[in-house]
Amino acid sequence: MDHYTQAIHDYKEGVGAFQQMSPDFTRAYNEFTGVSFAEGMISQKDKQLIALGVSLASQDEYCILYHTMEALHKGASEQEIYETLQVAAALRGGSAFSQLPLVQGALKEFSNRVQ
């Protein structure tokens, strides 16, 4: 079993063990996510791509693997997955770049004090 398949297997095994300890929570969570990912105005494929983008932006390794696999199962192409990565990267980079006014203000405020 390769690293990626093993990671998903480990996740599912961990969830199974947790379900033994907290069946009501696990059942409710599975129902909630099932409804969230059900076909609707947004296709299941697109929902998986959205989830992948969020997973990439939040650097959640297990979710990255799981939603990449699920996006493929729902018919996403490699190109769609790579474009999802590009959007996530732009968002994360954008969040850093959007702090520019804060940095500019700090420079203006503190540069006279440091000399």
Report what the structure shows.
Keywords: Oxidoreductase, Peroxidase. GO terms for molecular function: peroxiredoxin activity. InterPro entries: AhpD-like, AhpD_core, CMD-like. This is Alkylhydroperoxidase AhpD family core domain-containing protein. With 115 residues, the protein is an all-alpha fold. The protein has one domain: Up-down Bundle (AhpD-like). Helices cover 83% and strands 0% of the residues. It contains six helices and no strands. Helix 1 crosses helix 2, helix 3 packs antiparallel against helix 4 and helix 3 crosses helix 5. The chain is elongated. The mean pLDDT is 92.
Q: Class by helix and strand content? A: mainly alpha
User: How much of the sequence is in beta strands?
Assistant: under 5%
* CATH topology (fold) name: AhpD-like
Return the string of H and E elements.
HHHHHH
Specify the CATH homologous superfamily: AhpD-like
What do the pLDDT scores average to? 92
Biggest sheet character: none
Amino-to-carboxy terminus distance: 59 Å
How many helical stretches?
Answer: 6
Q: How many distinct beta strands?
A: 0
Low-confidence stretches: none
Give the C-level CATH assignment.
Answer: Mainly Alpha
* Silhouette: elongated
- Total domain count: 1
Percentage of residues assigned to helices: over 70%
Rg, Cα atoms, Å: 20 Å
CATH architecture: Up-down Bundle
GO molecular function: peroxiredoxin activity
Keywords: Oxidoreductase, Peroxidase
Domain Carboxymuconolactone decarboxylase-like: 23-98
Protein name: Alkylhydroperoxidase AhpD family core domain-containing protein
